[in-house]
Design brief:
A hairpin with a 2-residue loop joins strand 7 and strand 8. The protein contains 28 helices and 23 strands. The strands form 3 sheets. Strands 1, 2, 4, 5, 6, 7, 8, 9, 10 and 11 form a 10-stranded mixed sheet that branches. The protein is an alpha+beta fold.
């Protein structure tokens, strides 16, 4: 029972986390009793006392060893001692610990933040049943990934291709019944959409193949977030209705909270059947339109089938499907080109991300940048650990002299490094959580708000843990090896600074600082290139004014305005807007500049001999009179459209400089003709200045402008452009009231053109900002590293400096003595950094505009900034060295 009670006491200590100070004290007391008995006992009494003490000590030691072995705690004891000692050591050096943890938190936090966004957009598999078997059917290896509904129906009816197929298209639906729009993220889905993905309903049901029939009832499946936001999670929501684009849809089911759709950028709110499309577009439905490409198609491969097998099977039926769906209104040449189409398969396990595709190169570039920042942080901490190891040299020597092995001391040092890494990683995760959400907020626009799932998944967690372990090894191993590579006799005789010089530890510090300088220069060069790109983009003249321009998108489709009355309605609205106080000019157009929408087709310019199909591509817009005056785009030749350019007048077109130069060279284009479609012929009445069409950084495109008054079938959606001398937001209430006076059922969206242009530069702005932040951080870490190495050099050479000054050396020579080594490190680091920058420049060339990857101005500018910063960091301790009192320093030595 005594043995059991002792074991229970031992276990209680273990479970409570108590230290074995009492056990250790008892052990020492018994040991002292044994030694006392050896010295004092005489005769038989001495033998008895000696034997009792030995037996008591032996029993205790045997019990301790057996209990530790029985419970496997011998190794845990050793690790626990390392951890406790490491924590006490870090607590005794709070400045060092705080610096190291903060450096790691910034490095690991930045890496985790960028990786979590990269993972959410491009790497994470969809939360659906067996996502690895999902493949996307595409019309080409690259480029567009959409099909017409006739093609989808042909594929859907050949179910032997896959174990299941689905089609869908993202859209937005207006929840308002007039006035300013209140949009919900929508999906057009096929009947088997949810079944193929393996997504059940948590309330009600999902769609079935019956919902693919033409004329199906208007039904809707809503997402969990929409259910919570709009119905407070009420189970009675199933069976109720929701208004979409002024039409009533019955809610039949709610999807689980983990399903956000196939587009990872923002999820969905409401899904409705593709067969319901004619409800929104009566008279011009896309269900039978053979030239309306709007549906994505996915298939689920049967178990055990390879992608190559599935590709072979779908390629075999491709000619038959394209023959059955050829657009009848295409010219013969275009029909022949259409018949050359085929199918390509692409893995679709990660879903779709428009933002991810747009930012792919930028995200990988930022990932490389933050990786470099982490390397610089590791080099900085390694230098700090080397300096601390020099200060603790006698401690390590004494431990090794009394029997501690080199591996044991190294393990202690690596434990301290691991503790730093753990604390830095914990702080980095908090920083990553905040910064990744901030970055997503910055990437969101009013047109495309992002709602990306940034929850910590196994891949992000594994990345962070891996980063923590790798960094612990990177900054801890070299100092641990150096600290334990000593001559014990020499250490016991000489002072720390001598040992430091003998062991060569300072040389490793210099190499680390030179590496920091090189990597910092690379990041500064990158920041300069991206800032130069942003500056050049802002300086681009788009060909129109972007200031004080209000764009109003008016959708009349649900306002019950007959097609024949749309032109008159648009004209009446435009007249009312022009009459508003504060409006300097107003016009209407089918499209607005610097927007994702586009309209282009092949044309037949008079007298132009085409050398390749792309030579006759013309981007188009349809505008009202006054459009160019509103945007302050100069008319270079001819005239603007006017009220005489109506349905009964000769068809007119205006072209920009690039189109006139391409089609007619130096000849006067006024009066020349351009043919479109089969019989349409337009006469050029004016030439306007080149303007940007979709993007600020695009090459000048050939653009043609058609007269709004000559549109016999006006679109249901139109844009009104207003120029004001006051902030455009002040015009919104009056403009809303003016349009409501014509028809209250028109849906409206308001945008500032300057905001639209600024959002188009979101990617270069974000990359420039982040690269500047990380470049500045790298510069700061390099300055800290140089400051540290110079400070320790001053400490190490204090006696030498004192002797020099005692012999009459001027203070300036002492300063130069300290700065000379820094200058060598700076030169070596800059040379390496310039070489890396030149080699890596071509990798980011696609992100640049108006600057060359090897721009000498950027390279020299970054080098000058780095030289100035490091000179300041090194000068401070060098100046302190020059102010030493020689006699006091010599007495200390």
């Amino acid at each position: 029972m005594t043995w059991i009670s002792e074991l229970w006491r031992h276990l209680r200590y273990r479970l409570s986390g108590a230290r074995f100070d009492a056990d250790l004290a008892e052990e020492m007391r018994l040991h002292m009793d044994l030694r006392a008995a050896d010295r004092q006992a005489k005769g038989a009494a001495a033998d008895t006392a000696h034997e009792d003490a030995r037996r008591q000590f032996g029993n205790f030691t045997q019990f301790q060893e057996k209990s530790r072995e029985a419970w496997g705690w011998t190794r845990l004891d050793s690790w626990g001692q390392d951890i406790r000692y490491g924590l006490r050591t870090l607590a005794a050096n709070p400045g060092f610990a705080a610096t190291a943890v903060l450096s790691l938190a910034l490095g690991i936090g930045a890496n985790t933040a960028i990786f979590s966004i990269l993972n959410a957009m491009l790497l994470r598999s969809l939360p659906v049943e067996d996502p690895q078997r999902l493949v996307q059917v595409r019309p080409g290896a690259e480029g567009d990934d959409e099909f017409t509904n006739p093609i989808w129906e042909e594929l859907r009816d050949r179910q032997q291709l896959f174990s299941g197929m689905l089609a869908y298209a993202p859209d937005h639906f207006d929840l308002a019944d007039g006035g300013e729009s209140r949009n919900a993220a929508g999906l057009w889905v096929s009947g088997d959409f949810f079944r193929v993905l393996g997504v059940p309903a948590i309330q009600g049901r999902v769609f079935t193949r019956d919902e693919d029939r033409r004329g199906t009832a208007p039904l809707a499946v809503i997402s969990y977030r929409f259910w919570k936001r709009n119905f407070d999670g009420d189970v009675s929501a199933v069976g109720r209705t929701v208004r979409l684009n002024r039409h009533t849809f019955e809610i039949v089911g709610v999807t689980p909270p983990w399903f956000r759709g196939l587009d990872t950028d923002g999820g969905f709110d409401v899904a409705i059947p593709i067969a319901c499309e004619p409800i929104f577009h009566p008279g011009h439905s896309s269900l039978d339109e053979r030239s309306a490409w709007w549906l994505r198609i996915l298939g689920r491969m049967p178990a055990g089938e390879s992608l190559a097998q599935a590709r072979d099977r779908i390629l075999a039926i491709a000619p038959e499907i394209f023959r059955a769906t050829v657009p009848r209104d295409f010219p013969t040449e275009m029909q022949q080109n259409y018949l050359q189409n085929s199918f390509f398969l692409k893995p679709a396990a990660t879903g779709f991300s428009e933002m991810g595709a747009q930012y792919r190169t930028a995200l990988y570039t930022l990932m490389a940048i933050v990786g470099v920042v982490l390397l610089i942080a590791c080099a900085n901490i390694a230098n700090l650990l080397l300096a601390r190891a020099a200060a603790r040299q006698r401690e390590f020597s004494v431990r090794m002299a009394v029997g501690a092995g080199r591996a044991r001391v190294m393990r202690q040092l690596m434990t301290e490094s691991l503790l730093l890494s753990i604390f830095g990683t914990a702080a980095g995760l908090l920083l990553a959580s905040w910064s990744s959400r901030l970055l997503i907020h910055r990437l969101s626009t009013t047109r495309h708000p992002l709602d990306i799932d940034l929850t910590l998944d196994p891949r992000v967690l594994a990345f962070t843990i891996g980063a923590a372990l790798v960094t612990a090894v990177l900054f801890g191993l070299a100092p641990a090896l150096r600290a334990t590579r000593v001559e014990l006799n020499q250490v016991m005789k000489e002072n720390t600074r001598t040992v430091l010089r003998a062991s060569g530890r300072f040389n490793l510090s210099k190499a680390l600082v030179a590496g920091q300088v090189a990597l910092s220069l690379v990041l500064l060069v990158a920041a300069g290139l991206f800032l130069g790109t942003l500056r050049n983009l802002w300086a681009v003249d788009p060909g129109f004014t972007r200031h004080n321009i209000l764009i109003i998108t008016a959708d009349t489709e649900q306002a019950a305005i007959p097609v024949g009355q749309r032109t008159g309605t648009y004209g009446e609205i435009l007249d009312r807007l022009r009459a508003l106080p504060g409006v300097g000019a107003a016009a209407s157009s089918a499209l607005t500049p610097i927007s994702p929408e586009g309209w282009a087709q092949m044309v037949r310019p008079e007298g132009f001999a085409s050398k390749s199909p792309g030579d006759t591509l013309l981007f188009l817009n349809r505008v009202s009179p006054g459009y160019f005056a509103t945007l302050q785009t100069p008319i270079l030749l001819g005239r603007d459209f006017n009220d005489h350019d109506g349905l009964n007048a000769a068809k007119a077109i205006m072209v920009n400089e690039s189109a006139a130069r391409q089609f007619f060279g130096a000849a006067d284009p006024i009066g020349r003709t351009i043919g479109m479609d089969k019989d349409d012929v337009f006469q050029i009445v004016g030439v306007v200045r080149d303007t940007k069409y979709n993007r600020i950084n695009e090459e000048d495109r050939r653009i043609g402008y058609l007269a709004a008054g000559q549109d016999s079938d006006p679109r249901p959606s139109i844009r009104f452009t207003l120029r004001s001398e006051t902030p455009v937001e002040t015009l919104i209430p009056a403009a809303r009231a003016a349009i409501a006076g014509v028809n209250r059922g028109i849906s409206l969206e308001f945008r500032n053109l300057e905001t639209q242009v600024r959002e188009s530069l979101l990617q270069p702005r974000t990359v420039a900002l982040l690269s500047s932040v990380f470049g500045s951080l790298a510069l700061l870490l390099a300055m800290v590293g140089l400051y540290g190495i110079t400070s320790y050099a001053v400490t190490r050479r204090k006696g030498e400096i004192a002797i020099r000054m005692a012999l009459g050396a001027p203070r300036e020579s002492v300063v130069w003595l300290m700065l000379r080594d820094v200058a060598v490190l700076l030169a070596i680091g800059m040379a390496a950094g310039l070489a890396v920058s030149l080699a890596a420049g071509r990798l980011v060339a696609s992100l640049l505009f108006g600057v060359r990857p090897r721009d000498p101005v950027q390279l020299v500018g970054a080098a000058v900034i780095l030289a100035m910063a490091t000179a300041v960091a090194a000068y401070v301790p060098a100046r302190r060295a020059a102010r030493l009192d020689p006699m006091a320093a010599l007495r200390e030595e």
